[in-house]
Automatic annotation (TrEMBL):
It comes from the Bacteria. SUPFAM superfamilies: LexA/Signal peptidase. It comes from Rhizobium aquaticum. InterPro entries: LexA-like, LexA/Signal_pep-like_sf, Peptidase_S24_S26A/B/C. This is Phage repressor protein C with HTH and peptisase S24 domain. Keywords: DNA-binding, Transcription, Transcription regulation. Residues 95-216 form the Peptidase S24/S26A/S26B/S26C domain. The lineage of its organism: Bacteria, Pseudomonadati, Pseudomonadota, Alphaproteobacteria, Hyphomicrobiales. Gene3D superfamilies: Umud Fragment, subunit A. Pfam families: Peptidase_S24.
């Protein structure tokens, strides 16, 4: 199954391959320059937005890329016989923790990196150039439906730059841990969109936030 993250990741990779930004790729294809912006990949209520087949056709025509080339970017593990959208597995493991436990003290340092005892481990099925400090959180419950379901594993990269439209994990100084979409961040506050339309969006003063980390992969 082709995931939402995989197809947008392939578009980003195609843009990079031709020395273009996502907006530059859209412009080259004769599309609205904002068509491939991260902010356009989710609706205001957090639902997934997919690129149209017409947009993909125009992108391939504009770059001269073949469909096979695009599919190779969509599935970087194909050469190893892996399913579409799955990365080659790594030899090392990373820390794993359930969301329900993540709000308790002692599991993270001040920068949001894993620390202390009580972590499990899981193999990280991602590209070999991953940065140190990545960890995994296991979704528990239905509060992140329909995007993430109970049992899904989210790979999180603390310290990574986050931008509007990114999916992030946020921990407040009160100990609440949540997965949201970053809608807006200023020097004073942060606004977050809920993944589940049944849950309200959230807004915090930055002094209420302990750390924000970007979600870079999900096992769906």
């Amino acid at each position: 199954m082709i995931s939402h993250d995989a197809i947008w990741g392939a578009i980003d990779a195609l843009a990079e391959k031709y020395d273009l930004s996502p907006s530059g790729l859209a412009r080259k294809a004769g599309l609205d320059p904002t068509s491939f912006n991260k902010s356009k990949r989710l609706s205001s209520d957090g639902r997934l937005r997919w690129p149209s087949t017409e947009s993909l056709s125009k992108v391939l025509e504009a770059t001269g890329a073949t469909l096979d080339e695009f599919m190779g970017l969509l599935n970087p593990g194909a050469a190893m016989g892996l399913p579409v959208g799955q990365f080659p597995p790594q030899q090392s493991a990373i820390p794993l923790l359930g969301f329900a436990q993540a709000g308790a003290g002692g599991f993270f340092d001040d920068g949001g990196f894993p620390a202390g005892q009580g972590w499990d481990v899981v193999d990280f099925p991602a590209a070999p150039d991953r940065k140190a400090g990545c960890y995994a959180l296991e979704v528990q419950g239905e509060s992140m439906m329909p995007l993430y379901r109970d049992g899904d594993v989210l790979i999180v990269e603390p310290g990574a730059q986050v931008r509007r439209g990114d999916r992030v994990v946020v921990k407040t100084r009160e100990g609440e841990v949540m997965a949201k979409v970053l809608q807006r961040q200023t020097s004073r506050n942060i606004e977050l969109l809920s993944l589940n339309p049944d849950h309200p969006n959230r807004s915090f003063d930055l002094n209420e936030i302990e750390w924000v980390a970007r979600i870079i992969w999900a096992s769906q």
